[in-house]
Amino acid sequence: MSTLVFGHKNPDTDSVCAAIALADLKKKLGEDVVPAAQGELNPESKFVLDKFGVDAPAVVTSYAGKDVYLVDHSDLAQSPDDLSDANIMGIIDHHKLGDVTTGQPLECWIWPVGCTCTVISSMYNYFDIEIPKDIAGIMLCAILSDTVIFKSATCTDADKKICAQLSEICGESDLDALGIEMFKVKSAVDGTPVRELVLRDYKDFDMSGNGVGCGQLELVDLSIVDGIKADLEKDIRDLKAEKGHHTVLLMLTDIMKEGTELLVASDDETVVEKAFGAAPVDGKVWLPGIMSRKKQIIPDLEKVFG
Ligand code: MG
Ligand code: MG
Ligand code: MG
Q1: Domain parsing of the chain, residue ranges
Q2: 281 C-alpha vs ligand 2 centroid, how far in Å?
Q3: What is the whole-number distance in angstroms between the Cα of residue 143 and the centre of ligand 1?
């Protein structure tokens, strides 16, 4: 039986591309590893795989009894519900260490960089395995996506250095143009149900016993969502009630203006003011310079709940 490698729930481009790349690397190192995804691919990920002619991983939701590698997460809330019945062989990630634990020693590559694909590219280099052209292309896109074309606070010199190597391999030299092309696909909201937009890049967190959800839409221009903002606000209130959460947030991030309009549904809106120093008005607040959920939203919120 093949070992499966998969990223977090509501897979993003890094989760998908990191799973594909790690499976390729592991195969070349003599392991039988197949990529998987915990859910359907988003439009950006489909665009990226299409562009470089790479097959999408199978959607797998049950992992009991399987050997697995985790990429792009180590939080139980973002893992399959039956992960405790799987055998975790390793974790490759770039988030804070989560609450996943193992019964056996594991291979662990968790680095404070902007993207899991930066770690996996470095693993290819470490094992002296040539990165295939198509894999280089999708990993390059994953890094541009996760680092918001190098603008995010999560971006490091290691990410930029790996991107230079990947762009040489795959022949994409204009990284800004490639990034904008990708974010335009990501920004498209027409015809997409509101709930799907809220959940497209959404994560649940447990903050000292309080359920907190946070979604993010990264947009080339905030005006794209003008016509549906009221529906988005209503939907996060509904989602909060359905989940019994303390707070559900939706980050509307303008990648060109480099800031985020935060939509807030909360039992206590003052948590937002305490965390970010600005009070929501009518359930909304503009946060200049804020682009990263992982680095600029979640840690400050956790402190308030702590
Ligand atoms: Mg991710
Ligand atoms: Mg990532
Ligand atoms: Mg992201």
Answers
A1: 3-184, 194-305
A2: 31
A3: 10
User: pLDDT of 123-169, one tens digit each?
Assistant: 999 999 999 999 999 999 999 999 999 999 999 999 999 999 999 99
**Token digits of residue 221:** 């221009």
Q: How far is CA 70 from CA 141, 174, 198, in A?
A: 20, 31, 24
pLDDT at 306: 85
Contact 10, 200 (CB under 8 A): yes
Q: For the chain, give me the number of helices (H) and strands (E)?
A: 10, 11
| Cα–Cα distance for residue pair 48/185, rounded to 1 Å | 10
Ligand 3 mean position to 145 CA, how many Å? 7
Interval between CA 230 and ligand 3 midpoint (Å): 24
Tell me which residues of the chain have a pLDDT lower than 50. none
Distance 51 CA to ligand 3 centre (A): 20
As a whole number of angstroms, the distance between CA 248 and CA 246 comes to: 7
User: According to the model, what pLDDT value does residue 190 have?
Assistant: 86
Point out the ligand nearest to the CA of residue 78: 1
Bridge partner residues of 216 (DSSP):
251
Ligand nearest to the CA of 7: 1
CATH superfamily of 194-305: DHHA2 domain (3.10.310.20)
**Topology (CATH) of 3-184:** inorganic pyrophosphatase (n-terminal core) (3.90.1640)
The pLDDT value recorded for residue 256 is 93
Query: Which ligand has its closest atom nearest to the C-alpha of 159?
Result: 2
